[in-house]
Specification:
Order of helices and strands: EHEEHHEHHEHHEHEEHEEEEEHEEEH
Mean pLDDT: 89
Distance between the termini: 20 Å
Strand content: 25-35%
Number of strands: 16
Largest sheet: 10 strands, mixed
Radius of gyration: 21 Å
Number of helices: 11
Amino acid sequence: MKVCVIGSGVNGLISAYCIANCFPHCDITIISADQEMGKCSKHGFGSVMITRPLRIMDSVDTLKYTQQTREYCQNMNQEDAKAAGIQRLESFSLFNFHQNEETAEKGGDSVPTNEIANLFKSGENVRQATNVEMREAGFVADNTKLAEVMGEKSITKDTLEGYIGYHYIVDTNLYLPWLRHQLTEMAHSTSKEKRVTFVDRKITSWNDIGLCDLIINCSGLGARELCDDPFVIPIRGQYLSVSCPLKRCYRANHFIIVPRTYDTVIGGSYQIGRWDQQIDPKDTEKILRDAAAVYPEVTSSDIKLVDVGVRPGRIGGPRIEIEYVDVKNVKSKVPVIHNYGHGARGFTLFWGCAERVAQLASGLFLPHAKL
């Protein structure tokens, strides 16, 4: 069985990994126009938790995929978790309940009650912070700078709430190389030949792929043209890497501070519809201003990197389904399992989505398999 995976980001690599384990005798070719270790994925914060409302860029399975990804991180042995950059950290999430139900029903930016429910379901040991914990963390109602971070005109002691819990962080700088190494080490049990091959090539149509039995499409933003999918939308994000050592994550609206193995990343740009990847000084200023309101210590740390990533968002959330396409020199239609459009939740959903891809593939080629 020959499998072709389009895309070498985290979703392409983990889909290949799950397919390889599901079909131990298959050969896999991973094709990408840029083999720069997941050009888009490396910009991710690697957070496995839902702290924002489920909206138009999410699917009905977002929470389920998040929980499955959390279980994957939980079940990884300590040695592999360290090598892969996966760690369990405490997080402090802020919310401001400022609108009544009537305003919320009209599309306002209030925090719906199900957002808190999703925070509890996607994290571990989540609880509301006490007044003492809020004050010790510097989160007070009359903080005008904090109100600006949260997109509010004001916050009061009756509306500002904090929640403390645990979730997993996947260090993109470590996980992507670790995962790629796992794939390159896969070999056939008898011949010992490598099962996974990486090819540097741009795919503009299904005819560019060549002979194969199954295609896994993790082309990200490229799916807009490859699949003629108008629902694929770029989401630009700018972030900073600083040297400040932390043991806790902080979140407020779109702003987030995440400690990783060798640095801490901070950011908040979430700009739908922007393709440009140039660094915007105004975004940098806002990130530092927001950081000063949430956790001032990070602003006094050395800035190691300022960078931009464009995420592959999709109206309706990730597309994970089977389609049959015509491929040059192949007599019958070839099945394609799509897995793209994860937006800013790439590392939140990656394992759950890959498991679903493997399930669909098993249904095609192992009809009697227990799913």
